[in-house]
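TA notes, week 10

Several of you asked for a full example with nothing omitted. So below is the full record: structure tokens for the whole chain, then the designed sequence directly under it. When grading your own attempts, check the secondary structure regions first.
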């Protein structure tokens, strides 16, 4: 998932991401618990939200504000893949399963949401059955049924020409998924035959192969119910029918969305949500520096959850009061450079290896904000994802690159120089700075790359995620940040390495990597019941990918979040890339 936050697309997903280790106190932050903030109230201390819930409260009322520097891919729960949208969409769209609010790894705990319990597997993990809770209603008071969940999955996965932005796991794994044309083209009442709804509270999924992590898959917002009669395809975003504790009061494309309490939400059917604020406002296209100012003033949350800007970071780390209101955590994400195997000469492994050796990763780390924003990376899997094994295939002294080896690989590729383009998101200054550092490294060995910038809201839908566009524009190198769709090797690797995941829009396999052995290993892994054996297969996939040099690991991402003091129930969760869990944040009295 993109950690944009991405499942979650990417960092896009961005974006569902898992984190493991979450401590790592900020330098010089000891005794932070004794600090008081500017309005005189005592701070919980640096990293407090990585260890527990800060400002725990059941107080109702007030307006909660989120701010985003661009626009999300979509508010439609069936057409999004950013981690922060997976996070916030749960306020108005309840999936079958979700993640329990909790600090760090505790946030990776799966719990039933729309479902009454976890999935019941049969047939060796090829069939999964879920029962819905009783008494579920939409915002208009009409009942939520299992047929609405079935339809939600069908529209989100099988109408890729209309809704292309989310992952397509269901399409890949449901029996007959390769033949079903989706509900907009198939007007029959039956729909996809491998999803069965024997009654209004039961849904059964029949898979073409065993899928041992299926409970994680149904935690995606794609299983949030959608009434077919109210679906308007890509325009559903304008009138989303809520199944959660909040509903849309208004939506202005590119400007803001306003959510208010859903009067037909019943706490008896929902043990997770508290429905605290009167109103939730999501402001879009806000200047990043303005977001930082509002966060530090205690009056907003950075929706993307990617942390404060570099200029703000310097102010925060030199001010004890401000430092005490921050959370520094691993984001369960990898910052990397995708090498497009469909853009010559990077269709040759030697040219890709030249890029691997050429890059000074320390300069990239510095451009991103230093060690506090990430450790230098050398593997596809981050250290906090199962299957990680320490390795450095393209090691260089001090992680500063090896120009001699890079030139050797260029020669082996039949090249003395290469001219290409490198893509980065225009509203993410650290990403632009990192790309600029990469350009400088590559130039030293004869690889001349020009920077191309695209807005994050359309990065995958219109630009780098469209293979025809990336090839036409000679985008041989693409900046990327990725977090696990769920906390496993498969949840991290599938959408960026499996050839079957390549799509013509909203694509996240930016290298367009389609290797038969990797595809087969992924399929074998997800059907393997023994956890240790499964994780060993993920390690093999990591090593094979690095040998093929299809992406350059840059840093194991860390985030430095500003913690707004005027809000309650703030907890940094592994499930959503280290972001605060958006399910139950409230407004404190001033």
């Amino acid at each position: 998932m993109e950690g944009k936050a991405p499942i979650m697309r990417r960092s896009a997903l961005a974006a569902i991401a898992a984190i493991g280790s979450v401590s790592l106190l900020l330098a010089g932050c000891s005794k932070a618990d004794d600090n008081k903030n500017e309005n005189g109230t005592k701070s919980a201390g640096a990293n407090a939200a990585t260890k527990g819930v800060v400002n725990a409260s059941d107080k109702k009322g007030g307006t909660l504000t989120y701010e985003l520097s661009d626009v999300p891919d979509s508010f439609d729960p069936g057409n999004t893949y950013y981690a922060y949208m997976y996070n916030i969409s749960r306020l108005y769209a309840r999936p079958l399963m979700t993640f329990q609010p909790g600090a760090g790894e505790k946030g990776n705990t799966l719990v039933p949401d729309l479902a009454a319990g976890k999935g019941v597997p049969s047939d060796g993990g090829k069939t999964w059955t879920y029962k819905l809770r009783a008494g579920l209603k939409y915002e208009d008071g009409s009942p939520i049924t299992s047929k609405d969940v079935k339809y939600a999955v069908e529209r989100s996965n099988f109408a890729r020409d209309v809704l292309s932005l989310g992952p397509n796991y269901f399409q890949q794994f449901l029996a007959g998924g390769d033949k079903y044309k989706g509900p907009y083209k198939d007007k029959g009442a039956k729909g996809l035959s491998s999803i069965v709804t024997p009654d209004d509270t039961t849904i059964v999924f029949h898979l073409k192969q065993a899928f041992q992590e299926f409970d994680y898959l149904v935690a995606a917002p794609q299983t949030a119910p959608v009434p077919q009669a109210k679906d308007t395809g890509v325009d559903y975003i304008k009138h989303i029918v809520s199944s959660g504790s909040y509903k849309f009061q208004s939506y202005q494309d590119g400007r803001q969305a306003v959510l208010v309490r859903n009067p037909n939400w019943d706490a008896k059917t929902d043990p997770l949500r508290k429905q605290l604020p009167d109103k939730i406002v999501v402001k879009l296209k806000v200047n990043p520096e303005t977001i930082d100012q509002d966060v530090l003033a205690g009056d907003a949350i950075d929706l993307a959850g990617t942390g404060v800007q570099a200029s703000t970071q310097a102010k925060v780390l030199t001010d004890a009061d401000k430092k005490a209101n921050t959370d520094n955590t691993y984001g369960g994400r990898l910052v990397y450079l995708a090498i497009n195997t469909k853009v010559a000469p990077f269709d040759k492994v030697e040219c890709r290896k030249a890029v691997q050796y050429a890059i000074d990763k320390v300069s990239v780390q510095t451009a991103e904000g230093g060690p506090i924003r990430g450790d230098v990376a050398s593997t596809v899997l981050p250290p906090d994802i199962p299957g990680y094994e320490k390795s450095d295939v393209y090691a260089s002294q001090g992680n500063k690159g090896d120009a001699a080896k890079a030139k050797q690989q260029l020669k082996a590729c039949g090249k003395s120089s290469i001219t290409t383009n490198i893509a980065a998101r225009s509203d993410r200054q650290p990403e632009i700075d990192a790309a600029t550092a990469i350009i400088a490294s590559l130039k030293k060995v004869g690889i001349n790359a020009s920077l191309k910038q695209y807005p994050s809201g359309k990065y995958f839908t219109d630009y780098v995620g469209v293979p025809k566009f990336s090839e036409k524009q000679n985008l041989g190198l693409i900046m990327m940040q990725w977090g696990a769709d769920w906390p496993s090797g498969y949840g991290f690797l599938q959408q960026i390495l499996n050839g079957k995941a390549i799509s013509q829009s909203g694509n996240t396999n930016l290298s367009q990597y389609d290797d038969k052995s990797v595809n087969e290993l992924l399929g074998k892994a997800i059907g393997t019941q023994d956890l240790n054996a499964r994780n060993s297969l993920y390690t093999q996939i990591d090593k094979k990918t690095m040998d093929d040099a299809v992406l350059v690991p840059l840093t194991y991402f860390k985030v430095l979040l500003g913690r707004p003091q005027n809000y309650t129930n703030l907890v940094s969760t592994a499930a959503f890339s280290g972001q605060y869990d958006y399910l139950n944040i409230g407004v404190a009295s001033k």
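Residues 3-40 have pLDDT under 50 and may be disordered. Use that as a sanity check on your answer.
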